[in-house]
Fold this sequence. Notes:
Layout (H helix, E strand, L loop, with lengths): L1 E5 L6 H16 L6 E6 L3 H13 L3 E4 L4 H5 L7 E5 L5 E6 L5 H9 L1
Parallel strand pairs: 1-2, 2-3
Antiparallel strand pairs: 1-4, 4-5
Amino acid sequence: GSAGHRLPPRRGGTCQAQLAELADLGRRYAGQEVAVLAVNIDGAERREAATSAAARLGLTVLRDDAQAVARTYDLGALPVTLLIDPDGRIRGTWDRYRPGTTAGLETELT
């Protein structure tokens, strides 16, 4: 499965904490059939900072300039964390960031 994440519209400590948790999850599941990535729908002025922050953590960022991913998964409130299976079906959704969100992801992955 894939865990996708849409970055929040504002930068700051919360975004950094969430990206760090997701990057850590990606490292723990490296080599397994799990991909952890961030999806950035922000405009150019925010994209570079968010992408740089994710890259420093070793997290892959999908630039969704046309917001195709956002439309496909009907994303609403930001940020949102999704667990998506290999067939593209959503297996879990976590709205807004709270410390420990990845614990819910790990429960679904095991």
